[in-house]
Amino acid sequence: MKISIERGTLLKAVGQAQSVVERRNTIPILANVLIEAEGDTVSFRATDLDIEVVDTAAAQVERAGATTVSAVMLHEIVRKLPDGALVQLSDDGASGRLEVTAGRSHFTLATLPKEDFPVMASSEYQSNFSAAAPVLRRLFDKSKFAISTEETRYYLNGVYMHVADSDGSRVLRCVATDGHRLARIDAELPEGAEGMPGVIVPRKTVGELRKLLDDDDMQIAVSVSETKVRFATPGITLTSKVIDGTFPDYSRVIPTGNTRQLEVDAQEFAQAVDRVATVSSERSRAVKLQLDEDRLILSVNAPDSGAAEEELAVAYGDEKLEIGFNAKYLLEIASQVDRENAVFLFNSAGDPTLMREGNDHSAVYVVMPMRV
User: How far apart are CA 263 and CA 358, in angstroms?
Assistant: First the structure.
């Protein structure tokens, strides 16, 4: 194999691949990236056996072929090369070495046989559709903060992507929860997604997928089966196993009878919570909300470190209410609001609270209160 490729193109392709690779590996080949050159393109494939990413880039291919080399090492080398450099990768297959040359820099890297590289078996996808990058970005970005990190409840370690009913119409929905807070985000159902099986997309896959969704004009081809999910752009294909488990019936936790309504400027609210939480004890980080006619008092009382209080002018016309929350959860939910106003719907101090963005019902958040 012998190819020449522009440094920026190579860095982007290898960067995408190496981020999938697990740093600590018991199987040496999994630390490598499979480089395959053919025609006028070169592809870089990496896997951790649960996720596989293939990045295809344009290159001058003098001699077609394939090899595998340490993904992290190659990425580090390319990252340190000067901008605009032309990088040459060559191996003769017999020496077990890949030569990387750029200008006066020359590296020789150990390779492993391409035959040992595990390629994820392609499965039959029951559902294939395409969605605009901004739509998928919104679905996953707004829900991922609520993914659980608790390994014992592994079925909550991802975002549940499925088709659901909302006000009489079908929607593509993403839900995540960790038992303390929940995010439910809806988007218009793309054509062809109607029969899609519901899948739990793992946390790591959600992180890797984010890199594919930066281009607002990009259409992402989505394929879903019972065991795998694939997201593809013309240059990059990300395939992942889904979490083998049943996502709980989240609709039971979303309160429907909360009538006490608070409307507040989302940014002002987030900043005020952040300020008063500065003195809270790290363990509980409890913030108390005291609601009275058109005013909200946020307060923290941490006996060992001090106390803080801040008043905000808000729209609230119901009876007085005192309720406590974990400051971190409040901040994360408030930071999801793209519109000016956040609307909180309360029932009582012990019941889950609902939050949405203004009049928009396509994004709904639930947070459990704390005793304060």
Answer: 8
Q: Which of 312, 316, 322 is nearest to 371 (CA)?
A: 322
Beta bridge partners of 295: 292, 313
pLDDT per residue over 217-247, tens digit each?
Answer: 999 999 999 999 999 999 999 999 999 999 9
Beta-bridge partner residues of 62? none
Q: How far apart (Å, rounded) are the C-alpha atoms in residues 26 and 110?
A: 18
Q: Is the pTM of this model over 0.70?
A: yes
pLDDT digits (tens, 9 = 90+) for 11-37: 999 999 899 998 888 899 999 999 999
Read off the tokens for 292. 């009275």
How far, in Å, CA of 348 to CA of 334, rounded? 20
Helix (H) or strand (E) segment spanning residue 139: helix 133-141
CA distance 91 to 302: 64
DSSP letters for 341-361? EEEEEE--TTS-EEEEETTEE
Give per-residue pLDDT as tens, 97-138.
999 999 999 999 999 999 999 988 877 899 999 999 999 999
User: Pairing relation of β-strands 315-316 and 360-367?
Assistant: unpaired
- Count of positions (residues) in the chain: 372
Strand order across the beta sheet in which 295-302 lies: 306-313, 295-302, 286-292, 321-326
CA–CA gap between residue 354 and residue 322 (Å, rounded): 16
Backbone dihedral angles phi then psi of residue 325, each to the nearest 5 degrees: -140, 160
Give CA–CA dist 276/265, Å, rounded: 17
